[in-house]
């Protein structure tokens, strides 16, 4: 069961974000997606947003609310970047720039969305993390730190705003069939598949299904949860 909601998906112009946006549209929601460029995407309303700039986030929400006809009711914070480097070679900027997008960027969006959600006494916040956030990965200290931080964020939001009809949850995908994954050497892909109990990568639509559940009426009593979509790779981490 799904009540149509006004929805914003950050980084929803391609990959996992696009699959999430398409699924939410199919479920009957009104959806706007953000991208850095704001370039058109077939079948979706797109607004430009630089997630590392609070003024840009505010402007994107304002435009999205005009398109949607009211405050955002469902926020999917999906926008993210990687900048992999071994710890001893990782510069401070390598670290902080990834956190500024993946973690602080999500904070900027959640803070902006929360005002309307509190007034309405309803909200669904879904933060897209990664199995790496809890499982760890060499060369990804920055990325893992940013993605694990989303868990603490969701659980703190749950304790702070849970009494206002607002839920905050995390979806933690494992390896997903995307353009980025396809660029990996075949040997590396085979090694990754070998470590996954399901012996395959996820399809973007499988991640989208988990997000759609958390945005639905059926998940009204689910909050502060981490929902892995990783074929068993994380095993409860």
Automatic annotation (TrEMBL):
4Fe-4S found in the keyword field: no
InterPro entries linked: KR_dom, NAD(P)-bd_dom_sf, SDR, SDR_fam
GO function terms (MF aspect): oxidoreductase activity
Entry keyword set: Oxidoreductase
Domain of life: Bacteria
Domain Ketoreductase, first and last residues per copy: 5-179
Homology family: Belongs to the short-chain dehydrogenases/reductases (SDR) family.
Name the record gives this protein: 3-oxoacyl-[acyl-carrier-protein] reductase
Gene source species: Marihabitans asiaticum
């Amino acid at each position: 069961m799904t009540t149509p909601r006004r929805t914003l998906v950050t980084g929803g112009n391609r990959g996992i974000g696009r699959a999430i946006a398409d699924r939410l549209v199919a479920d009957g929601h009104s959806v706007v997606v953000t991208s850095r460029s704001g370039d058109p995407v077939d079948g979706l309303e797109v607004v430009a947003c630089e997630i590392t700039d609070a003024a840009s986030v505010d402007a994107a929400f304002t435009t999205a609310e005009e398109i949607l006809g009211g405050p955002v009711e469902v926020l999917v914070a999906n926008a993210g970047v990687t900048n992999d480097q071994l710890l001893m070679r990782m510069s401070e900027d390598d670290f902080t720039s990834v956190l500024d997008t993946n973690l602080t960027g999500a904070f900027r969006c959640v803070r902006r969305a929360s005002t309307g959600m509190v007034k309405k006494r309803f909200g669904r916040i879904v933060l897209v993390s990664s199995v790496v956030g809890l499982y760890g990965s060499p060369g990804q200290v920055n990325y893992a730190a940013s993605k694990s931080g989303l868990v603490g964020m969701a659980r703190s939001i749950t304790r702070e705003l849970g009494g206002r009809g607002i839920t905050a949850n995390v979806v933690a995908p494992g390896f997903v069939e995307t353009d980025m994954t396809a660029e990996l050497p075949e040997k590396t892909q085979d090694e990754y598949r070998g470590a996954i109990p399901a012996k395959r990568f996820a399809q973007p639509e499988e991640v989208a299904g988990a997000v759609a559940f958390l945005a639905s009426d059926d998940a009204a009593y689910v909050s502060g949860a981490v929902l892995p979509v990783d074929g068993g790779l994380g095993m409860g981490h």
